[in-house]
Each structure stands twice: as C-alpha cells, then as structure tokens.
Amino acid sequence: MFSRWRRSRITRRPFSEAWLHILETRVEAYARLNGDERALLRARVQVFLAEKTFVGCAGLDVTDEMRVVVAAQASRLELGRRPTFFPHCLTVYLYPGAFVSTVTDTLAGGVVDERRVVRVGESWRRGGVVLAWDETLAASLGHTPGRNVVLHEFAHQLDGWDGSVDGVPELRGQGALDRWQRGMQAAYLTLIHDLPRGQASIDAYAATSPAEFFAVTTELYFEDVDALRDRYPVVPELLEGYYGVEALGGRVRHLN
Q1: Which domains does the chain have, with CATH numbers?
Q2: Roughly how many angstroms between the first and final C-alpha of the chain, as a whole number?
Q3: Contact 49/64 with Cβ under 8 angstroms?
C-alpha cells in the first residue's frame, strides 16, 4: 500500500519538459503510441527514475538523456500488463560501449572455470542491470531492427520475478503455464533444429538457453515480429498474452 501511495504521488508531479523532449527525439517508439499510452509511459518513466539508481562506468558521466532513454525502453515492456516496476533491479550500470564480464562455471568434479566475455548487456538476479550506452541509444533511435538491449535485459528481470531465470515468467493460472511451457519449448527445440540447417530466422544466441530464448524473442516481438511468425508462430501468441500488447510489424497495439 505504501508503494502504491508513493508511486501515485510521483506520477502526480508535472512531467519535466526536458524529459519530454528526450522522449520525443530519442525514443523512436514513443511516436508510435497513442495519447493515453504516451501518458502512461511518462508516468512509468517517472516511477522508474525515482526508484532506480544510475551509475556510470569506465568514466561515463550519466545524463538525463541516458536515464530517460533507459527508463522509457524498460517501461515499454509493462505498458500492457500489471507493472512489477522491476523490483529486483536497484541499479542500472552504464558503460560507454561493450564491456568485459567474467563468467564463472562449475564443471564436473567441482572444477571452477572462469572466462572473460565481451557483452553489451547483463542482468543480475538481484541488484541491477548493466548496459552499453551506444547500443542502448542506437536501439532507442530505431537503428538496430530486431535488437534492443534494454528490452532484452529487462525481459530477464521479468523472467526472474518468480525467483528463477528459466524462460518462464510469472503467469496467471496453471493453464497459462502449461500453454507457455508446451509452446515455448517446442519453438526452442525448433530453433535448435533449424540452426545447423541454416533455417533459423532469429539470432543463434536465443538457442543457448530457454532464458535467452525468452529475452531474444521479446526483443523481436516488440521490434520485428515478422522474424518470429513464419518459423515460430506460437511465440507471438504467447508473448501477446503475457505482455498484453499485439505486435503489428514494428509497432504494438495495447489490448487493455
């Protein structure tokens, strides 16, 4: 109740004209929303910016442009559904570009393997999301069709809302859960089958795990749904039910 009251107070504040200019000039998807949807997105941006801390890394100075762009992209995921406001994400870490991350795996016999990988985004189960600003801005401006690192990493945050990042977000009812598991698993296995045959229409990274399949297909659902429809038609149907929006080839129609 306190959170609802506090958020209600936040959204009653006037929306900054400077922030509005950023939405209108740096968030390509904002122009595709109707008036009510824009007002809702602005309110969600206000809450996001009030509740999340932004930290610049590798010498990056965080600006309002960066904060508003990230908040708007993340909030797109919850415009058609009851919002979680991403409570497990306390901090957004921004790098100027791709960054190096250390991945630790425990192998057979208890051997610990550490390797360094270059990434443009990372989602932690507790505490934060890490993003490359150049990739974030390019996606926000519509320059990377089908790719949006903020949508990808915050899809992981939604996936982990129920305590497990496994490609199965919190769903309403056993029937919805059963449909999701059957449909997404079948599509995931189809992708694995398609890759060596050159028939896949989506990024091979989606085949690394069910969690990455969910995140990658979320990007495509909001940005380039046609890449999903031909080979994996059940996926748009399931994502429409979960996100509460209907993808229409580069834009979405809100169902609620």
Answers
A1: 1-162 (1.10.472.150), 166-256 (3.40.390.10)
A2: 23
A3: no
Contact 148, 131 (CB under 8 A): no
Q: Which residues does 82 contact at the CB level (< 8 Å), separation at least 6?
A: none
Residue 125: its pLDDT value, please?
81
In this prediction, residue 2 carries a pLDDT of 62
Amino acid in the structure at residue 145: P
> In this structure, how many other beta carbons lie within 10 angstroms of the beta carbon of residue 13?
10
Share of the chain above pLDDT 90, in %: 82
pLDDT at 99 over 90: yes
CA–CA–CA angle 224, 228, 230 (5° rounding): 120
Residues 6+ apart with CB under 8 A from 106: 112, 113
Whether 92 and 56 have beta carbons less than 8 Å apart is answered as: no
- In the block, tokens 């306190």 appear at 2
In whole angstroms, give the CA distance from residue 217 to residue 228.
8
**Integer Cα distance of 225 and 60 in angstroms:** 33
Q: Which of 101, 95, 43 is nearest to 72 (CA)?
A: 43
Tens of pLDDT, residues 148-168: 999 999 999 999 988 889 999
User: Which DSSP string do the residues of 132-195 spell out, in sequence order?
Assistant: EHHHHHHHHTT-STT--HHHHHHHHHHHGGGS--SS----SSHHHHHHHHHHHHHHHHHHHHHG
Which token pair is 6? 């506090």
Contact of 63 with 26, CB cutoff 8 Å? no
Across 48-87, b (16+ Cβ under 10 Å) vs e yields bbebbebeeeeebebeebbbbbbbbbbbbbbbbbebbbbe
